[in-house]
Amino acid sequence: MANITDVARVAGVSISTVSYALSGKRPIADATKTRIAQAVTELGYRPNAGARMLAGSRTNIFALTAPMHEDTHPPALMSFVLSVVTAARSYDYDVLLLTEGEATTGLRRVVSSSLVDGIIMLDVTVEDERIDVIRELGLPTTLIGIPHDTEGLTCVDLDFEGAARLAVSRLVALGHTSIGLMGHAEALYERGSNYAPRFRDAFLAAGSDAGIQTAFHTTVATRPGVEESLDGLRAQLPGMTALVLNCNENIHGILLEVLREREVAVPEALSIVSACSSFSTDHFLPPMDVIPLPSQESGRRAVELAIQQIAGFADPHVELIAPVYHRKSSTAPPAATVAA
Amino acid sequence: MANITDVARVAGVSISTVSYALSGKRPIADATKTRIAQAVTELGYRPNAGARMLAGSRTNIFALTAPMHEDTHPPALMSFVLSVVTAARSYDYDVLLLTEGEATTGLRRVVSSSLVDGIIMLDVTVEDERIDVIRELGLPTTLIGIPHDTEGLTCVDLDFEGAARLAVSRLVALGHTSIGLMGHAEALYERGSNYAPRFRDAFLAAGSDAGIQTAFHTTVATRPGVEESLDGLRAQLPGMTALVLNCNENIHGILLEVLREREVAVPEALSIVSACSSFSTDHFLPPMDVIPLPSQESGRRAVELAIQQIAGFADPHVELIAPVYHRKSSTAPPAATVAA
DNA sequence: CTGAAAGCGCTTACAG
DNA sequence: CTGAAAGCGCTTACAG
Fold first, then answer.
1. I need a surface site. Which of A76, A340, B152, B199 has the fewest CB within 10 A?
2. Where is the HTH lacI-type domain (chains A, B) (predicted)?
3. Chain A residues with CB inside 8 Å of B83's CB?
4. How is chain A split into domains, by residue range?
5. Is any atom of strand C within 7 angstroms of residue B318's beta carbon?
6. What is the pLDDT of residue A336?
7. Residue A61, pLDDT score
8. How distant is the Cα of B77 from the closest Cα of chain A, in angstroms?
9. For the residues of B173-196, what is the DSSP string, one character each?
10. Cα within 13 Å of Cα(A19), Cβ side
11. Rounded Cα–Cα distance for residues A272 and A288 (Å)
């Protein structure tokens, strides 16, 4: 494989000129630039990664730490992984994948061997064991997700509270005054998750602010679990005309099946909004209104913030991504209003 | 960060001795080894990855190319990715993730910059654009999946034909003589997939060998699609008592729902086997007999074969992983037999 | 069993 | 605008 000396010889310049021409770190005469470009093409030259890492101060590699928890939704994780890789490539960065087995060990290893310039953390839990390591290592890092203590950390996430308010306000605008929230499994509120309780609390607060009735129920992702959650909400809100789902994907399909059997028409008798979902809600019958979990944007911002830290200008902060409401066919004014 | 010179100084030896002690490439006196080990611990020394890559002949990094097709099942892809990463780590290899946007470009890039020692390819299609690049690059590579032309390639995959034969033989052993195969979408048989037609053909051949009746139908992963497939199979096999599923995950749930509504009891009136599934079939009602897609084993073998190629001893070949049948509760002798 | 030294292929002050 | 050279931190013949 051709090296920089070959390129310099063919172009008739010194290797430092080749290096500078390629990096753009100092002005090079146009004629020289052209000759170098030709030599590069002719030889199919590509700088040696190891030499670059050793001589330079960059490796152009990010570590992506993506553990799987019990409640990790693999397609969601996958879509975050892909968006991080894609975003990283647009900055000429490659991505090294670290998994659960090596959560903290792997981070220490790749950092202390100077393999990576920065770290992107997925699937952050409230008390994540990786966070102490991050603080200790001091390498540019972006978390996708928000732990309890964000001191000194750079974090990106959907604005879950904003998403809850958005869901409520859209339903209120349609005329709904009694809205239930079908939540995740109870365990998620007691441990690990930051977004689940954040969403729930903002939902209840938004309802109270709007002067409407709300109720919340956790949901086990089985058919009996969904029925129990639905019945529990109805018990609290006999006049419930709308449902916000902030829950497991499987619950969506089960819920629609239950409603069909009970002959509860969606959206005529019950409006439904799926909030913070990583999957498409288009294939449901009816296609479901959704406030998506923005994996593309999260990945992109995470990478951008890491790049800024590497460049040296970036203060640690939490960045929330604004929620977006996608109108499909699962919401309508409440039946009473229609009748009126 | 401490470097090899620091370690040598603290241990009172030369840097070459440190290097050899760490690599084990030449015998070192026990006493010396101990002093070096102590120095390494004391200084928290970890060899610089870039220097290693430059000086040595290895980077200890694999490229993992994992594109997403329309029919890619994300959880399955994720489980293969994780198994490759885990297996790679057991050989002290890290994994660089390449995605669709960079299928061939990315491979050329990481290889020509000497960033990786080998390549693992996931989600291989019959006429995969990456294969020509692989042949051209000549770097140790293992494909998980089997393309049309395997000349000169190292491939690992489940023995799909064996899996089809296994499914049939287990059902025949229970007494079934009329078995339907609910397949993937038609597109998968016309294009791209190698495993779908391989499974279908072996299924039909196994049925014929066993002297029983079989039928095959493609399946669209919607409720009407599943009903059409089921009805199509029944039309061909009025006495059908067993069904083999080699299809999309979603079809499983829909099928069980359809059967429930039609009051076809599983397994009493119809036995079902899920073949080559990457997902758990335990949560279905009843838990479904399954021949799993062995992502763990595929990933491990793929890595092992790549490691062997890097070490220089490995002839290109196709390696098939033996199918395993997991008995759950969705099969039984056919009703007629029970009655008899 | 161990050491001194060349060399891997770059980047980047230093110099002009 | 360009070049000669030091140096990054290892590995591995070469030598003893």
1. A340
2. 2-56
3. none
4. 4-47, 61-158+295-321, 160-293+325-339
5. no
6. 63
7. 98
8. 8
9. HHT--EEEEE---HHHHHTT-SHH
10. 11
11. 7
Tokens of A30: 């146009």
* DSSP class per residue in B111-146: HHTT--SEEEE-S--TT-HHHHHHHHH---EEEES-
What confidence tens digit (pLDDT) does each residue in B254-277 have?
899 899 889 999 999 999 999 999
The CATH code for residues A160-293+325-339 is 3.40.50.2300
CATH top class, domain B61-158+295-321: alpha beta
Residue-wise pLDDT for A116-129, tens only, equals: 999 999 989 888 89
Tell me how far apart the alpha carbons of residues B156 and B164 are, in angstroms, rounded to a whole number.
Answer: 17
Fold held by B160-292+325-339? Rossmann fold (3.40.50)
Lowest-confidence segment of A69-83, A127-141, A254-268 by average pLDDT? A69-83
Fold of B4-47: 434 Repressor (Amino-terminal Domain) (1.10.260)
Residues A111, A137 contacting (CB under 8 angstroms): yes
**The predicted structure's pLDDT at residue B193:** 78
- Return the pLDDT at B336: 63
Check if B61-158+295-321 and B160-292+325-339 are the same fold: yes
Q: Is the pLDDT confidence value at B283 over 90? A: no
Q: Which residue has the tokens 């152009």?
A: A60
Under 8 Å CB-to-CB from B326, ≥6 apart: which residues?
A: B289, B290, B291, B292
